[in-house]
Amino acid sequence: MKQCFVIGGGGHARVLLHGLRGLGWQVAGYVAQEPSSAMPVPWLGQDRCRLASPEGLPGVAFLGVGMVTSAPWRRSLIEAFLAQGFDLPPLITHNAMVHDDVKLGDGSVILDGAVVVTGSRLGRGCLINTRAVVDHDCVLGDNVHVACGATLSGGVRLGADVMIGTGANLIQGVEVCAGAVIGAGATVVGDVTRPGVYLGTPARRRQ
Ligand SMILES: CC(=O)SCCNC(=O)CCNC(=O)[C@H](O)C(C)(C)COP(=O)(O)OP(=O)(O)OC[C@H]1O[C@@H](n2cnc3c(N)ncnc32)[C@H](O)[C@@H]1OP(=O)(O)O
Fold it and tell me: What pTM was computed for the model?
């Protein structure tokens, strides 16, 4: 049986456990700052400590750390595990739909009900959450989160560390710069060229 461990011990890590079981992975446990009584698998130690002494960990890890705002630190976490020699394959859960020519970077996760459409390219550590849509020819930098039910129309481009909130919508072809946060329910109808928090319909930068 394929053995792996999960990085992270919060709600997103538990979601990942379901996805991994559905795909036949045996999860040895998780690494996180501290143990969590909600996790049904063993705590294998603190993430940074286990990076320094990785003996006994399976060679394959999945990134189970969520993000609710722009979180560049998450990118360095991925890079640290890769640099230590762990394999962080992308994860597509059983009920997600990803067209076969889509490119996914290490550590990216596509959750149940999400759809990622032909021609799209996602960087490392992207999270396409439950029922989100990334339509054709989108380009996502590293460490982008498209939260539950959000929609990227065709040809959208997102820089690194972008957060797209739950239920937000981006029309075709818009570009969002690195580090921007699009609030839940916002509608983006033009390029976002300055980092910041964007809210409403049409989305405007919060002062
Ligand atoms: C499986 C999962 O759970 S994945 C997680 C998914 N999570 C998300 O999508 C979260 C997205 N985050 C948001 O939308 C957040 O509200 C943010 C980032 C836009 C703003 O967060 P904060 O900076 O903490 O703002 P805060 O909650 O203090 O609100 C400040 C003001 O903005 C308003 N506001 C907050 N979010 C929004 C929004 N999405 N749209 C419109 N107004 C908003 C608040 O009502 C408040 O208004 P007030 O000053 O008139 O009372």
Answer: 0.97
Whole-number Å distance, alpha carbon 107 to ligand 1 midpoint, is 27
Q: Which CATH architecture has domain 3-83?
A: 3-Layer(aba) Sandwich (3.40)
| Closest Cα to atom 27 of ligand 1 | 183
Q: Domain 90-195: which topology?
A: UDP N-Acetylglucosamine Acyltransferase; domain 1 (2.160.10)
Active site residues: 136
Ligand 1 closest atom vs CA 167: 9
- Name the residue at shortest CA distance from atom 15 of ligand 1: 183
Ligand 1 centroid, distance to 198 Cα (angstroms):
10
β-bridge pairing 109-110 and 91-92: parallel
**174-203 pLDDT tens trace:** 999 999 999 999 999 999 999 999 999 999
Strand partners, 60: 87
58 closest CA partner among 19, 30, 77: 30
- The complex's ipTM works out to 0.97
Same fold, 3-83 and 90-195: no
Closest to 21 (Cα-Cα) out of 2, 45, 42, 43: 2
Q: Residue 1: pLDDT band by 50, 70, 90 thresholds?
A: confident
Sequence spans of domains, the chain: 3-83, 90-195
